[in-house]
Amino acid sequence: MATRLKPVDVAVVGVGLTGTILAKELAEAGLKVVGLERGRWRDTDPDFGMPYAHDELRFVKRHELMQDLSRETVTFRNNANETALPMRQLGSFRPGEGVGGAAVHWGAVTWRFLPWDFETRSRTLARYGKDQIAADCTSQDWGVTYDELERYFDRFEYLYGISGKAGNLKGKIIPGGNPFEGPRSRDYANPPLKTTYAGSLFKQAVEKMGYKPFPTPTGALSRQYTNEYGATINACVYCGYCQFHACEMGAKASPQTAVLPNLMKQKNFELRTHANVTKVNLDSSKKRAVGVTYVDSRGREFEQPAELVLLTSYVLNNVRLMLMSGIGQPYDPAANTGVVGRNYAYQTPSSVTLFFEDKVFNQFMAAGGLGMTIDEFNGDNFDHSGLGFIGGGGMSAATTGSRPIEVRPVPRGTPRWGAEWKGAVAKYFNRSFGIAVQGACQSYRGNYLDLDPTYRDFWGLPLLRMTFDRHENEHKMSTWITNKAAEIAKTIGPSKMNVNPRTEKYTIVPYQSTHNTGGAVMGADPATSAVNKYLQSWDVPNVFVVGASAFPQNGGYNPTGTVGALTFYALDAIKTRYLKRPGALI
Amino acid sequence: MEQPTGRRRFLKSSVGAIGVAAVPAASVPASVSAAEPHAHGGSARAAKYMFFSAAEVAFVDAAVARLIPADELGPGAKEAGVTYFIDQQLFGGWGTMAKMYRQGPYAEGTPQQGYQSPLTPQEIFRVAIREINQHLGKPFEKLAAKEQDEVLKNLEEGKLALESVPSRFFFNLLLEGTIDGFFADPIYGGNRDKVGWKLVGFPGVAAVYTTLVDKHGVPYNAEPVSIADMLEGRVAADEHGHPKHVTITRKD
Fold it and tell me: Would you state the pLDDT for residue A45?
């Protein structure tokens, strides 16, 4: 029997990157806000302290900061003809758990999606016609444009103190930045990080080829910075334990460094950890949420009444909560009706590894997002006529931390073990680097999320079921772009190189990317989107679903910058319009 | 060895109950009592095994010595204490699938669906070692090195059929554990004397690299630093707890 608690104005479900910002802003606006986080409290002291912070086994292989699958996981299959089985150990992606969410162990790369990304379908149709898009591709426009989002990108970049170099200031192309980015109102909050040897070789090569390299924008800060919330983020020391780790220096932008110091002082905010929300409760009309139900660390069930419910957990759990609560019609791939679970997408990463006999790179001196990028092969920045695919990907020489358990490349053809393997690891650990492609992933009718009919979580509730594979569009794209990366690699002049396009069947096993997207996508049409452009549920207007769950398909970039912009965009709509007149904004 | 005595004592006192509960009686070799920790030497200097029997230590010592052999480049996995590392990992959260989803029903699934064995890594090591030795008709460690390589290769390629688990599955766990143990911080019992880090030139616990990260192409030869070096004050630290690395001469 659930204990009914005192009503609040806002229940924030998930206290990570999006939840902390929304909670802070709404608490400050005078609303009573409760943050419900199913994991534990985490902060630099004592959780990310030295020397323990520099322990690759603990953080990368034993997943210290990541979701405990013994409590909850997803089930997975490549297509609807298979039986989904549980992801029993973390592999392909690594969601976070606890205060700060995945933004504690994120790699800090912070992009703005291209103007094209937000209008994928209409711009593709206009430029190439309908034959360019596969018949079962459900990629669509977002219902919001880059121009509408620009000031919110800016706000997020300044909150997180992003280090980078503008390439397009109010329409003026700035040398040294990304000439393909949408126009921005001002430069990044902080200058770019330093350039490594790998980055400089890549830069020289691509410049020779006529491309326009620029420093990868990142939330690993190039200098100490105090943001609008009064939080001070330190300067990065290039220790190389960034992605999958937490920062002992407080130099990686995260909820802990950028938002929580302020949020935890807000009188109108209350944080409840170990509070696992199992359901958003609706009234009898099913058109209004009356609060949420959660279970605490002692197994007690509570009902928290709230006027406004913000789903701000990771992509997968946002969608699962909608499905478990009956918010919006579940997607039916056979009939191609319904919206919740529709357009699940991912990323199509690929790479070229370069091996040298005589150069050392010290790639262990590194930072999250440290690198040089070119955007010539991203989005629709190149002519796709006759290529048989849409989309693209950013291409970077990244120096994000070579730690030897996970990063020890050897030339193709080297055995997996034995003396020859050992010799190759010894030789090339410090004489290699990679060019990585952050390939986009389109959405398809057969890729979706729903509730698993068999498997249950710790509390006896159905797991989320993921049905996913990359399609021919992604395989063709990956092959084409990775070959471009190989041409660049050749110009740099390695003795050997591995060219690794992504063309095989998707597998949940090796790590690829924690860039899961979609399932509660935004759009202009309630028939093909679960939320409107303000991330408000079409069906239950006092529920907003915030995160990469709103991406209708994934672009050729890391998602966090765009998630941050959508968060501030939704916040603005809530503060300036919704609170004055609660109800559907569209 | 880097193990505080207090923790050792705790583990020792609890091994009987946990060890018996986690291992099906039928798979415990008759010659070994699971109720006592196995304090025999094996490869590791006075290593105190928590999970492996003497026979299992001999098997794993022999196998990891083939996976990462000692050679002119330096010590291999056996010398690095990888057997002891795997023992400790099997006894702990990883070996018992503490953070893994364990509810049924179970099915083998497709390769794309990953780990689907109802057995824990701990159980898989115990049962696979027994079945491999049974299949061979003699203990793996008694084979010549070349024959051992052949057996490992057959396991890797799924050509040596095991009863309880696909052989490839066991091989991959063994190889992963070997590489983890060779390169993980020595606090876990492997990578003894930082031989894995010295082999590749990895400095371990990182210093402040702000003024070094853009020194292009300049080798960085530092004496690697472990977590225990920091805890025991063997290396000087700055105010944020980053070590001050000491430069060494590297011959390669």
Answer: 86
Known active-site residue A515: yes
- Which residue, among A504, A500, A211, has the nearest Cα to A352 in the 3D structure? A500
Give the distance from residue A323's alpha carbon to the nearest chain B alpha carbon, in angstroms.
Answer: 21
For residues B141 and B61, give the distance between their C-alpha atoms in angstroms, rounded to a whole number. 8
Q: Answer yes or no: is pLDDT of B12 > 90.
A: no
Helices assigned H by DSSP within A291-336: 315-325
Q: Which of B103, B202, B231 sits opposite A429 (nearest CB)?
A: B202
pLDDT < 50 positions in chain A: none
Q: Which residues of chain B does A93 touch, with a Cβ-Cβ cutoff of 8 Å?
A: none
pTM: 0.94
- Tokens describing residue A97: 């758990």
Count Cβ atoms below 10 Å from residue B239 Cβ, excluding itself: 5
Tell me the two tokens of residue A329.
């019609």
Q: Which one-letter DSSP state was computed for residue B110?
A: -
Cα distance between residue A348 and residue A131, in whole Å = 22
Distance CA B16, CA B44 (A): 22
**DSSP assignment string, A451-508:** EEEEEE-TTSPEEEEEE----HHHHHHHHHHHHHHHHHHHHH--SEEEEE---SPP-S
Whether residue B198 contacts residue B191, with contact meaning beta carbons closer than 8 Å, is answered with no
Assess A419–B contact: CB distance below 8 Å, yes or no: yes
Angle, helix A472-492 to helix A197-208, in steps of 10 degrees: 100
Q: Check if A400 contacts B (Cβ < 8 Å).
A: no
Grouping H, G, I as helix, E, B as strand and the rest as coil, residue B185 is: coil
This model of the complex carries an ipTM of 0.96
Closest-CA distance of chain A to residue B92, Å: 11
Q: Which amino acid is at A445?
A: R
- List CB contacts (< 8 A) between B85 and chain A: none
CA distance B167 to chain A (A): 16
- Cβ neighbors of B30 (< 8 A, separation 6 or more) are none
Query: Do the beta carbons of residue A546 and residue A531 sit within 8 Å?
Result: no
- Helices A560-573 and A17-28 pack at an angle, to 10 degrees, of 20
Do A195 and B101 lie within an 8 Å CB cutoff? no
CA distance A254 to A164: 17
- Burial level of A294, CB count in 10 A (0-12/13-18/19+)? buried
Task: Give dist(CA A561, CA A111) in Å, integer.
Answer: 5
Please give the Cα distance from A107 to A111 (Å, whole number): 12
In the predicted model, is pLDDT for residue B149 greater than 50?
yes
Give the count of alpha carbons within 13 A of B232, CB side only: 10
Provide the CB-side half-sphere exposure for A193 (13 A, CA). Answer: 39
- Please state, as a whole number, how many other Cβ atoms lie within 10 Å of the Cβ of residue B24: 10
> Which residue in A557, A540, A539, A537 sits closest to A549, CA to CA?
A537
Q: What pLDDT, on a 0 to 100 scale, did the predictor assign at position B252?
A: 52
Neighbours of A468 (CB within 10 A): 22
d(CA A503, CA A473): 10
Distance of CA A472 to the CA centre of its chain: 23
Of A7, A42, A28, A61, the C-alpha closest to A404 is A61
In this structure, which amino acid lies at residue A450? Answer: D
